[in-house]
Write a structure and sequence with these properties.
single chain; about 625 residues; alpha+beta; four-stranded antiparallel β-sheet; 8 helices; globular
């Protein structure tokens, strides 16, 4: 299947170089009208198609009942911003458009009456609040420092802005409701040399200059532990009900009483390991990291006895969350599912799942007695007791640049440099590799946390609530997970950009960042308690290729495929399933050849002038398993 897919891509590239006198559909896609019509007859008719011109999508998400927010960027040199548009999904109409200026737009929080957006510019960072009912600005805060990060502090109804200013961090707390400043303070240290601040009710924790617990309403220091110093590659803080756990820059593991700030223990760890992740379960801390020789470690540490229980070493990064099931500790690499004896760390299972690439995001889920391995291009389930495979679904990527391994391969020398996996904290690709591994581990943890929330509540939607209700612990946990995911994606995107710049790769960075963001964002939104979906390519022949969405019922492994559009050059990866209304929203050209038209010629990164097929936002019915 993979070899045939490559043939299709080569044919598409050949067609791109043909003279403009050829038929437009032959020039821009390989599927014939006859094949499109044949496949379309098997699909339900779309609910609506909204023209979006020659565009890419950089955001697509539901922000309320019957409300779909879409951010567009022009398919032209530099991929400049186009509008946000809000779609009424019941009527299939555009309710409003918001013109976006230069900068990278990131949705931070969604409320009934507020849409909060971070805008990263070249010389400043804005925090913007839109009215979701009409698209007008309610307030805007601008910060001159380019290196500004934001943290929603929901218990106090505030946003905190952190700015590096001459070896100090300036912290500003402003209200979510109107953007007005509540307080300001300064902290020694820098953001660049410490992990991101964390909200863990009832405190906000920072690590700019030692560990500090701050009051979420006034930003005042409640306790300060300057002896617990971290650095940029230190793992994020980990919590249980009454403690927090921190690994210092000297590789000491400290357990702190969260309420009082008392350091209960401080244990030296191996000094040759750079730790990336700390995870607590059932009185055991699981520490992950890597050494200078690119060996990866999982260390089990007893909270009660304050000592190492066992350690496991492997050559591949351990990317997934950890799942404990009947004495087995399951984990995933980019290629395999592993299980250890949780009492002694001995390997009990090692199953090769895929050979498709490098550091794909990997999440494990325990469903119906199976451990389900969820990767970018493969979904596979294994019996948790025997390790026998119960089902497996592999997908072909939509295009050479529309999967993570393909993106990495398109950057000269990047994959080779990342493969060294240097653990140094110095800037460049070694630090990027560490940051990427850490981010994928955190991402997997949050995916699994979200899944447990969906499973327990039966509710897929997690963000359409007024901020006054965020004191309810269940909704707080869900929303905070959403915020954390947004921060994780932003951090990973920043690491990728720094790595590309370090490799002296300037061209196509915008397209790289756009595609990587789309892959990770779609990945983060692709699950419910019982279902998971993936966009991919269905290949039948060189003139019969389609962008397809597969919906997998995880308990049974049954799969349903929906053809969305013919394959064509510069296709995006944005698909969103509304499980409640059984609809998939996607960006493409649909299955009606009569609507296919070429855009006006415009400048492109690869060609002096280029035309592409004009696109749509399309809603297609999707039937779930009964």
């Amino acid at each position: 299947m993979e070899s045939r897919s490559k043939i299709g891509w080569i044919l598409g590239l050949v067609l791109l170089t043909m003279p403009m006198g050829h038929a437009q559909k032959e020039l821009w896609m390989s599927s014939s009208d006859a094949n499109i019509s044949k496949r379309a007859q098997r699909q339900p008719a779309p609910k609506f198609q909204i023209p979006t011109g020659a565009s890419h999508v950089d955001n697509m998400q539901l922000i309320g009942p019957d409300r779909l927010l879409v951010g567009l960027r022009e398919d032209a040199q530099g991929v400049p911003n186009a509008d946000y548009l809000l779609i009424d999904t019941r009527k299939g109409t555009v309710l409003w458009r918001y013109p976006r200026e230069k900068g990278a737009y990131h949705i931070q929080l969604i409320f009934d009456d507020l849409l909060l957006i971070r805008v990263d510019g070249e010389k400043k960072t804005d925090f913007l609040a839109l009215d979701p009912t009409n698209g007008t600005e309610k307030w805007r805060r601008s910060f001159k420092s380019k290196n500004t990060s934001f943290l929603p502090v929901l218990p106090s109804g505030q946003i905190w802005a952190f700015q590096d200013t001459s070896k100090k961090v300036q912290i500003t707390g402003f209200t979510i409701a109107d953007g007005e400043t509540v307080w300001q303070s300064e902290s020694a240290g820098t953001m660049e040399n410490s992990p991101s601040p964390v909200v863990h009710d009832p405190y906000v924790f920072t690590t700019f200059d030692g560990l500090k617990a701050l009051d979420p309403r006034k930003g005042t220091v409640l306790y300060n532990l300057p002896e617990l110093q971290l650095h940029a590659l230190s793992p994020p803080l980990e919590f249980d009900d009454s403690h927090l756990y921190v690994i210092t820059k000297n590789n000491d593991l400290a357990m702190v009483d969260k309420a009082s700030g008392t350091i209960l223990s401080r244990t030296p760890l191996s000094d040759n390991i750079t730790f990336t992740n700390v995870y607590h379960q059932d009185g055991v801390l699981y520490l992950r990291g890597l050494d200078d020789q690119a060996s990866h470690y999982l260390i089990a540490f007893s909270v009660t006895d304050k000592k190492e229980l066992w350690r496991y070493t492997i050559g591949e990064p351990l990317l997934s969350n950890l799942v404990l099931h009947k004495g087995k500790l399951f984990m995933g690499t980019a290629s395999s599912l592993l299980a250890l004896n949780s009492s002694n760390g001995n390997q009990m299972l090692a199953v090769k799942v895929t050979d498709t690439g490098r550091n794909y995001p990997v999440t494990l889920r325990e469903v119906a007695g199976n451990i389900v391995y969820v990767g970018e291009l493969v979904i596979a389930a294994y019996d948790a007791t025997t390790g026998i495979q119960t089902y497996k679904h592999g997908m072909s990527p939509l295009g050479p640049d529309l999967h993570l391994n393909g993106l990495d391969a398109s950057i000269p020398n990047l994959k080779e440099e990342l493969g060294k996996l240097k653990a140094s904290a110095s800037p460049g690709l070694g630090a990027m590799a560490n940051a990427e591994t850490r981010s994928y581990q955190q991402m997997a943890n949050r995916h699994y946390s979200d899944y447990l929330s969906y499973k327990n509540s039966g509710n897929y939607s997690s963000s359409q609530h007024s901020y006054t209700r965020y004191k309810i612990s269940n909704e707080m946990a869900k929303t905070q997970a959403t915020v954390a995911m947004a921060i994780s994606l932003a951090e990973l995107g920043g690491a990728i950009a720094k790595g590309m710049q370090a490799a002296a790769v300037k061209a196509s960075i915008e397209k790289q960042e756009l595609f990587r963001k789309s892959i990770l964002d779609v990945y983060s939104r692709s699950q419910s308690a019982a279902y998971l979906y993936r966009p991919h390519m269905a290949y039948h022949s060189s003139n019969d290729q389609f962008a397809t969405l597969s919906l997998i019922h995880l308990p049974s492994g049954k799969i349903r495929r929906t053809y969305l559009s013919p394959i064509y050059q510069s296709y995006g990866l944005w698909n969103l399933v509304d499980f409640e209304n059984q609809t998939v929203y996607h960006h493409g050209i649909g299955m009606n050849p009569a609507l296919y038209t070429l855009s006006k010629a415009r400048k492109s990164t690869l060609f002096s002038k280029i035309k592409t097929v004009e696109t749509f936002i399309i809603a297609v019915p999707l039937r779930l398993q009964e």
